[in-house]
Amino acid sequence: MSREHASRRLPVIVTFVVGLMLSIMPLPEALAPLRPDWLALLAIFWAMQLPRTWSVGSAWIVGIILDVSYGTLLGQHALALCVIVFITVRFHLLMRVFPLSQLTATVFALLALYQFLLFWISGVASVSAPAIAYWAPVITGTVIWPFLYMFLSGVRYRARAGR
Length: 163
Description:
mainly alpha
């Protein structure tokens, strides 16, 4: 039983580690604002697929790790991730039956909420950043979502089948 339980958690942990690496990987200055929020996308996917295992507590831990790696206000990304994961877990049964186009629109709204919360927290703390740094990741994350969703669905299917 323990080995089966660990094999179900391994793909999730690996995807979060890869997502963290993609989030902190250096990019050219012109492309840096266009970096999608990999961990937010992964948190939405796994909260929708495995809501009892990967939910708000996991989002808090991932958010704290992201805050430490970015050097931002401690708890900023954690709070924003918790909010979008809570909404995803709350509506996960509804979101699972959405067609991919409607799910992509929902992910757009969740990413916009995530960036708005980051924008709001930064504004309260008097930290300024250009608007493109907040809103370009929403667009790129929405464009990447269908491909990421199909890829991660395949990973989850293979992990469940034990291949």
